[in-house]
């Protein structure tokens, strides 16, 4: 189950498949457009290339499209939308990281031609991409024309025409030997982007078949056209070489792009493809999940892991946006999605990328400090939506569910992201034991976030408690609420952890401690005050009750029963609700209290989890792709296994079935991270205990024969295999673990534990 196939061409489905078929390497991304269709939404993105210009906020720039190619037979272009399609197949090969296609087209004059292709974006050289075409005239001989071009007319906002904008100016464009180039510059940030492409064509004997080259500049688009003489039934090969280099990685992008293509062209595309596939194959050995007995789940989980990996960058100055590098959804911005939903996958499988995600936050720390200062707080306030510098880039205006203009308050009030980042920092340290990272980067961030919370809380003298008022929790239907339990609980936890790491650094690295203490202007007295504040932060929970109120006053809101579900199993709006007054109802967008219990499971009992799951699950609209995965995991924790599997399928198929209806705008990266958590933390039952050890309490659906996954814990690779009867943990070193709460010492080799009886 390694292929996502498309066997029928339906024009209206193109935008969704372009997202599904996106190829990326963490730096460069090309949407999976079908180059022989006129109905497409090209997307060329480079991680970290943001610009504002005339847009509402800074956004990821859609750069020129380098995939331009046209084939003309008797003056007629080969187009899926105009020719007769005799056969059609496109497939994403996730094992090797390529996009393959095979189509046969009949032109209006009856001529038949077969086009086979293989596309990749290299994991070996992050500036390169390549395409190999195999072209066969099936019932004719003669002359055809092949055109290679770069499209410099691309822009952001094809799906949002009111905000349509081109973020770059074309500085230079023309021909080089071999091929074409474009050099563009973004307006505000001044990023330079150089694009080079070139063609190579040869017959079955390896002889060049590209003749009579002509160069033209069509508007701002450089174009080269070749004459090719072909014979009936004989296949010839066409190779497209491409490189994109930016000023983020080079002082002379065009010069380096040209040199890159020169070397690439001489080596041959097959060599680069070989290196690329070797890297992808080796990565699968670290991150693959195998599900025996459920082909849908198997394909779905690999699809999600493949695209998460495609977003992972070697560059610590970039992160992963909510829609990956696959489209312009949420303008390419980075949210809490990264730390809470995606981060665990990288932490336990590819920890070097997890570290880079945290370093991105460290590198944007100056912007976070600026946010805090501008808002009247201390320390660092990380933005709800982040781009390249850490300042707040949340749009001020959007649309409600009826299309009415509405003020967006999340950038002003959704403070919990600061604690979410702190959670990922602490978990990274526990799971990797990377003291050097915490010494050099992590503790500084924790202290600045702790200082922020200490300045954000408000003292209620009458009740002798600290409150956090006028906030938005994970459930974004309710704005300007007081004492949201998710926010307050994590702020309390955050303050205590910041204090703990202050003393950890003093004890373990006294020299670094002294430097950081004076650099930040900290005193023991200030840090000790965090403990006093934390102990008095108000949590809206009565000691004798298990049900936790999401925020003050939530239980007094209007009740609306969910009674209908759509074809994807997602709730329909109750007929009694006014969509402009959602904040006055108990309906919630996504888990909030339940989310808290999954972020800090060690803080709550199974009975507390059960009571709150049963209450809030009935009131959740799942209007975020983040939602179903969390209810799946919690359902497994409290025994609601039927709904847990249903929520898992909604998660793992969110893009493959487009069940949120917006896959055309990019990959649901957070949901993909949630899918991994469903399998590993849910069905695999893996949980990080308070003492830093792993506990496993697995459960498999009836039709699953086995589940196998790999994790990396404290630098040690572990292979975990679950059947109905046994749990097997394979390790190369001794290590303590718990199975269903009972502690065992793993021995090198395979360790078996009975799950029945």
TrEMBL record:
Stretches assigned to the Glycoside hydrolase family 65 central catalytic domain: 302-677
SUPFAM superfamilies in the cross-refs: Galactose mutarotase-like, Six-hairpin glycosidases
Annotated Glycoside hydrolase family 65 C-terminal domain residues: 690-746
Coiled coil region boundaries: none
Origin superkingdom: Bacteria
A single GO molecular function term of this UniProt record: glycosyltransferase activity
All residue ranges annotated as the Glycoside hydrolase family 65 N-terminal domain in the record: 8-248
Active site per database record: 476
Keyword Hydrolase carried by entry: yes
Biological processes per GO annotation: carbohydrate metabolic process
Record's keyword terms, sorted: Glycosyltransferase, Hydrolase, Transferase
UniProt-listed Pfam families: Glyco_hydro_65C (PF03633), Glyco_hydro_65m (PF03632), Glyco_hydro_65N (PF03636)
Annotated residues for binding of substrate: 336-337, 589-590
PANTHER family, sorted: GLYCOSYL HYDROLASE-RELATED, PROTEIN-GLUCOSYLGALACTOSYLHYDROXYLYSINE GLUCOSIDASE
Family: Belongs to the glycosyl hydrolase 65 family.
Record protein name field: Glycoside hydrolase family 65 protein
């Amino acid at each position: 189950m390694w292929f996502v196939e498309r066997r029928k061409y339906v024009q209206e489905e193109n935008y969704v498949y372009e997202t599904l078929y996106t190829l990326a390497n963490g730096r460069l991304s090309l949407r999976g457009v079908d180059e022989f269709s006129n109905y497409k939404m090209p997307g060329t993105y480079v991680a970290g290339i943001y610009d504002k210009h005339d847009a509402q906020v800074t956004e990821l720039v859609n750069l020129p499209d380098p995939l331009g190619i046209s084939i003309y037979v008797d003056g007629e272009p080969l187009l899926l939308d105009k020719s007769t399609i005799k056969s059609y197949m496109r497939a994403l090969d996730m094992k090797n990281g390529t996009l393959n296609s095979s189509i046969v087209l009949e032109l209006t004059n009856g001529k038949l031609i077969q086009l086979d292709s293989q596309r990749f974006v290299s994991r070996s050289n992050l500036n390169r991409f390549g395409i190999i075409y195999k072209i066969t005239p099936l019932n004719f001989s003669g002359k055809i024309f092949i055109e290679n071009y770069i499209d410099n007319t691309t822009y952001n906002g094809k799906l949002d025409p009111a905000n349509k904008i081109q973020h770059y100016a074309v500085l230079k464009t023309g021909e080089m030997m071999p091929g074409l180039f474009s050099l563009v510059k973004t307006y505000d940030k001044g990023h330079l982007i150089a694009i080079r492409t070139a063609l190579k064509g040869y017959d079955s004997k390896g002889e060049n078949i590209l003749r009579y080259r002509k160069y033209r500049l069509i508007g701002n688009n450089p174009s080269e056209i070749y004459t090719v003489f072909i014979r009936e039934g004989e296949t010839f090969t066409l190779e497209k070489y491409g490189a994109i280099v930016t000023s983020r990685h080079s002082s002379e992008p065009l010069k380096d792009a040209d040199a890159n293509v020169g070397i690439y062209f001489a080596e041959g595309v097959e060599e680069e493809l070989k290196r690329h596939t070797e890297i992808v194959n080796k990565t699968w050995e670290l991150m693959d999940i195998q599900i025996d007995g459920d082909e849908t789940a198997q394909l779905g989980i690999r699809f999600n892991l493949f695209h998460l990996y495609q977003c992972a960058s070697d560059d610590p100055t970039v992160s992963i946006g909510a829609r990956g590098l696959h489209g312009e959804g949420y303008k390419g911005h980075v949210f809490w999605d990264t730390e809470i939903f995606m981060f665990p996958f990288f932490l336990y499988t590819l920890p070097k990328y997890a570290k880079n995600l945290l370093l991105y936050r460290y590198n944007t720390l100056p912007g976070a400090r600026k946010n805090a200062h501008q808002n009247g707080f201390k320390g660092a306030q990380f933005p709800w939506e982040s781009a390249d510098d850490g300042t707040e880039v949340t749009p001020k205006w959007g649309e409600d569910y009826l299309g009415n203009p509405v003020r967006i308050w999340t950038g002003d009030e959704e403070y919990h992201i600061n604690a979410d980042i702190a959670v990922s920092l602490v978990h990274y340290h526990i799971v990797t034991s990377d003291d050097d990272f915490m010494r050099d980067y992590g503790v500084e961030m924790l202290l600045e976030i702790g200082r922020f919370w200490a300045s954000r809380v408000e003292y209620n003298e009458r009740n002798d408690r600290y409150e956090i008022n006028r906030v938005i929790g994970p459930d974004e239907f309710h704005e300007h609420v007081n004492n949201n339990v998710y926010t307050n609980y994590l702020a309390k936890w955050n303050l205590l952890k910041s204090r703990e790491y202050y003393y950890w650094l003093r004890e373990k690295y006294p020299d670094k401690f002294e430097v950081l203490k004076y650099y930040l202007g900290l005193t023991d007295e200030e840090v000790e005050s965090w403990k006093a504040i934390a102990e008095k932060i108000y949590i809206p929970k009565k000691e004798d009750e298990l049900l936790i109120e999401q925020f003050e006053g939530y239980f007094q809101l209007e009740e609306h029963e969910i009674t209908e579900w759509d074809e994807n199993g997602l709730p329909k709006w109750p007929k009694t609700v006014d969509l402009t007054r959602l904040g006055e109802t108990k309906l919630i967008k996504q888990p909030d209290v339940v989310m808290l219990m999954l972020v800090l499971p060690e803080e709550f009992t199974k009975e507390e989890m059960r009571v709150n799951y049963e209450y809030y699950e009935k009131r959740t609209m799942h209007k975020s792709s983040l939602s179903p995965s969390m209810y799946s995991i919690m359902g497994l924790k409290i025994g609601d296994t039927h709904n847990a599997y249903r929520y898992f399928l909604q998660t793992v198929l969110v893009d493959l079935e487009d069940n949120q209806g917006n896959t055309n705008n990019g990959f649901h990266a957070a949901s993909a991270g949630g899918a991994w958590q469903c399998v590993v933390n849910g069905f695999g039952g893996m949980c990080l205990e308070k003492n830093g050890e792993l506990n496993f309490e697995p459960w498999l659906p009836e039709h699953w024969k086995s589940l196998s996954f790999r994790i990396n814990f404290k630098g040690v690779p572990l292979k975990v295999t679950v059947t109905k009867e046994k749990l097997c943990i394979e390790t190369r070193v001794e290590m303590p673990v718990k199975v269903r709460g009972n502690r065992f010492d793993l021995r090198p080799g395979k360790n078996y534990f009975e799950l029945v009886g």
